Each structure stands twice: as structure tokens, then as C-alpha cells.
Amino acid sequence: MRILILLIMVGIIITSLLGKQVVNVGFEPLPPLIIDASKGYTIEILKAIERNSDLEFNIVIMPYIRARNDIFSGSSQLMGHTPYCLETKEFYEKAQEINFSIEVKADLYVMDEKLFKDYKALKIGIPRGNESFASDLLGIPAKNFYLGDLENLLKMLEARRIDAIWFERSSTMSTIDKLKIKNVYYMNIPSEPIPAGLAVQKTSSGNELKIKLETALKKVDTKSILKDLVRFNQLPTKGIVK
Questions:
Q1: Burial 37-60 (b: 16+ CB within 10 A, else e)
Q2: Cβ of 213: how many Cβ atoms within 10 Å?
Q3: How far apart are CA 134 and CA 124, in angstroms?
Q4: Phi and psi for 219 in degrees, rounded to 5?
Q5: The Cα angle at residue 61 between residues 60 and 64, in degrees rounded to 5
Q6: Cβ(129)–Cβ(28) under 8 Å?
Q7: What is the pTM for the complete model shown?
Q8: pLDDT computed for residue 11 by the predictor
Q9: Is 86 exposed, middle or buried (0-12, 13-18, 19+ CB in 10 A)?
Q10: What pLDDT shows up at residue 8?
Q11: 216 by DSSP, 3-state: which?
């Protein structure tokens, strides 16, 4: 009897999955947007999309550079988060963003606030894969950036092995809090929010997925999901991370 019930349950699961389009997703860690493959504001948005469409997301956490390369090669069909409409020319030759973005702010982080005065000459840590965009946006030579993952970069900053870090505010401040690093100064650069987006391939199948995602998003209350993110954007333009 138990075997029969188990077979019925398996049959129901298989039947329900047959009508689903599985989408491979590559996400860079970006707390609180992406905490892990099952938690984060953007993860909650994708879960809501699953409830409002025939899409099912297979999420893998990876560095941005790999997520970008996987979109180019076709190993993944969706990636994030891109600097919406601000990626490099090479990127837009092979990928395209869906009509959706989340406003985030980015800051420069230092252990000595005097370093803000001549920040373009500093050795600046940045998560791997973001350096070209940052160089173009900030007017800082690419050679000034030191690449790594966010947690290790923050440990290096605390140890004064690099001068500064530049990255998205909510993820950096959340990680500083997690690592319990004290007396980190921040300064908002650039002053305008940077929209964070999601990208698909620039192919016919990518176009179809783009339409599906945009249609499903119209049924999702993204403002409600992202309401707690607003507090990061409302922080002063300069101060100490608390």
C-alpha cells in the first residue's frame, strides 16, 4: 500500500513538472538580494514568478564573471544582477536585460576616512567580474582594482592589505555586519542609484524567455517584497557602517 501511494505521489510530481520550463540561473551572491540559492529578495521574486507562470528556476550561486560567461555560452538562461543598461558593449552583443530593475546604491568603503580625498589613486577591492563596469562608471583605471570575493576583500580591508572596496551598498553593509568588522567608513559614489537587473541571452530563445519573465512580473507585487531594501537607500551619503 505504501509503495502504491509513493508511486502515485511520484507520478503526480512528474506530471506537474512536465509542463514546466526549467530555467538555469546563475546568481552572484548579493545579500540581501541574493543570500543563497533559496533566500533573498530576488529569490522571492523568482518564487513568485514560478507561481504565476510555467517557469521553474534552477538557481546556482557563482561569481559574476562565471554567470556572465554561462549566459554567453548558453549554460545558463538567466543571470544577475547586472548594472542595468550600464554593462559593457561586449556584454550587450551577446546578452540582453529584461525590462525590470531594482534600485541600489554603491559606496566606497575605507578604514581611514582621509582616503576619500584622493580615492581614484587607491588600491580598490571589487568582486571579480565587476571591474570593467566600475572602471567605466567611476573613471578609475582598471589596474587600480583588486579582484576577489566580497568576504575576503572585506577581511583584507580590515587588515589594511587593500585601501578600499567599492560595491553595492546593501550587500556590502550586510557582509560587514556578518563579519563584525567595526569602524568602516563609507561614501556614496556615484550619488545616483544604480539599477540592478537580470539578463538573458540575445537569441530567439532568450527573447521568448524575456517576454515570459516580463509578463509574469506584472503579476508580482515586487514593491512589497523589496520594501525592507528601501532603508539602505535612505541612509546618509557618508558615514560609518553600523
A1: eeebbbbbbbebbeeebebebebe
A2: 20
A3: 11
A4: -100, 0
A5: 115
A6: yes
A7: 0.81
A8: 46
A9: middle
A10: 39
A11: helix
CB 35 within 8 A of CB 212: no
24: which 3 cell numbers? 538555469
Q: Are 185 and 239 in contact (CB under 8 A)?
A: yes
Question: Would you tell me how many other CB atoms lie within 10 Å of the CB of residue 187?
Answer: 18
Residues in the chain: 242
Instruction: Give, in order, the Cα–Cα distances in Å from 168 to each of 172, 189, 241.
Output: 6, 10, 13
The one-letter code for the residue type at 177 is: D
DSSP class of residue 121 equals G
Query: Residue 227 CB: number of other CB atoms within 10 A?
Result: 11
Least confident of 6-20, 94-108, 130-144, 194-208: 6-20
Q: Kindly report the backbone phi and psi dihedral angles of residue 214, in degrees, each rounded to the nearest multiple of 5, phi listed first.
A: -65, -35
Residue type, 193: P
Q: Is the pLDDT of residue 184 over 90?
A: yes
